[in-house]
Amino acid sequence: MRRQPASGGDVRRRDERLLRSAFIISSSGDWIFRFALPVLVLQLTGSAVTAALTYAIEFVPFVVIGLFSGVVADRAERRRLLLVCDVVSAAIVTGIGVLCLVDPPPFLVMAAAFLLGCVRPFSFPAFQGFITERVDKERRASMNAWVQGADGTLGMLGPVAGVAVVTLLGPTVASFVNAVSFAVSALLIGGTAVVAAGPRLRASVRAACRSLGPDSLAALRMVRTERALLWATVLLTLANFTFPAAAANLVYIVAGPDGDVPAALAVIASAQGLGAILGAVAAPALLRRFAPGTLMGAAMGVKALALALPALHPGVGTLTACWFIVGMTTSTFIVPWRTYRQGTIDPRFLGRVVGLQRAVPFSAIPVSSLLGGWLVVEFGVTALFTAAAAIQFLVWLGTRFSPLGRADTADHGAPGRPKMLASPPGSPRVPEPAAVHSDEARR
User: Fold this and answer.
1) In this structure, what is the dihedral angle of CA atoms 408, 413, 418, 423, given to the nearest 10 degrees?
2) Which residues constitute the signal peptide according to the record (predicted)?
């Protein structure tokens, strides 16, 4: 009997499952590797600033090429772009594993981390855009919550696995595990349905180069037009001077300059993951009762209180409580924020807006990581967390009394409301990704 072609709804559900699997497998390797790299550099150098720089350097590409990568993510077929990102990432991480075999100088490790960071500005907006293509609108809050919850789960288990891998097997194994995770992710993305739209990647890069100026200006206009997006960009930039400054220096705070990793480090870092899981589980239900702006404001306020705990009494207990609460509030901010943005921005232009809103806030992370390292070495842990809590309090005030705090999903997509976005001037219109071929139809 001839097998019936899958219906559009069935194909979307299957693609959603494949996307979830690809995300969790790729992120599993990332979490182990993300934890192993600063430990490796700290063991090689004994320097808190150098270890923090290793953490920070992965964010530099978001600042340098974030706008360009967002334009490429809008113009390319996102499925193909995600495949290329996974394959290139697997090759780079394999190279890092080979470097580890020869006891590399720290600058080579940081250079490889920078190259890997150059891939992520393309994969993140492509993944966010792919969600709008392959996940029904009514399921996006659930999908965003699942992604955040999965990331939280990995945040809880990843540090434990990272400590085990680094202590027992070394960073070489961590690198090769991450490479395998990227390869499996590529296979899963390759199993999703082909969207009948989108030029080849090389043509998309050329088009992005030609229209980078107009498209960047278009993204800026979109953010300026929607005041909640503008305030979010400013406030998230300021917020990256708070917890990221502490997170970049957690290894030094707990392990000291010798880099001897105690079990307490895994406990503290895992607490953040547990908090993120609980926040992600609660977020969809909270979104049904409260406006996104209300949830985002509450999350920023509670995070300020959490950052004050280690300032009052530095220790493993307060650090663990702080990381747990930060994980929970991060989820209860990110889920409503991404859902609101996906419902506000035309999917054809989501990549460039995401690229802009990563590039600007992430520009603060390298600076805050280094400032955090300087503060903790020169003035101690109390000074670092006092400064972080004070800045986070200002972020809460800004969220509470700005258009971001009044953001409401119900305001968007109302009947008769005109479209906010138009095609960027001087650039070709990106076709709507509507038609989908199932596996049977492709044959």
Assistant:
1) 100
2) none
Give the pLDDT of residue 415. 35
**Beta bridge mates, 436:** 195
- Distance (Å, whole) CA 241 – CA 412: 31
Based on the number of CB atoms within 10 Å of its own CB, is 10 exposed (0-12), middle (13-18) or buried (19 or more)?
exposed
> What type of residue is 367?
V
pTM given for the model:
0.65
- The C-alpha angle with vertex 160 and arms to 102 and 321, in degrees rounded to 5, equals 130
Residue 423 reports pLDDT greater than 50:
no
Q: Which of 279, 286, 289, 369 is nearest to 324 (CA)?
A: 279
The one-letter amino acid code at 429 reads R
- Close Cβ partners of 177 (under 8 Å, ≥ 6 residues apart): 29, 32, 33, 165
Higher-scoring residue by pLDDT: 270, 200: 270
Structural domains of the chain, ranges and CATH numbers in brackets: 8-194 (1.20.1250.20), 211-409 (1.20.1250.20)
Quick: pLDDT tens for 51-102: 667 766 777 777 777 767 777 777 777 888 888 888 888 888 888 788 777 7
Q: Max Cα separation, the chain?
A: 75
3-state secondary structure of 436: strand
H-run or E-run covering 365: helix 364-378
Tell me which DSSP letter residue 417 carries.
P
Side-chain-side CA neighbours of 53 within 13 Å: the count stands at 14
State what percent of residues in the chain have pLDDT above 70: 74
Runs of H (alpha helix) within 248-363: 250-255, 263-289, 292-312, 316-344, 350-362
Is 403 in contact with 228 (CB distance < 8 Å)? yes
CB proximity list for 217: less than 8 A, separation 6 or greater? 424, 425
pLDDT digits over 270-306, tens only? 788 788 888 888 888 888 888 888 899 999 999 999 9
- Mean pLDDT calculated for residue range 370-389: 87
Calpha distance 405→403 (Å, rounded): 5
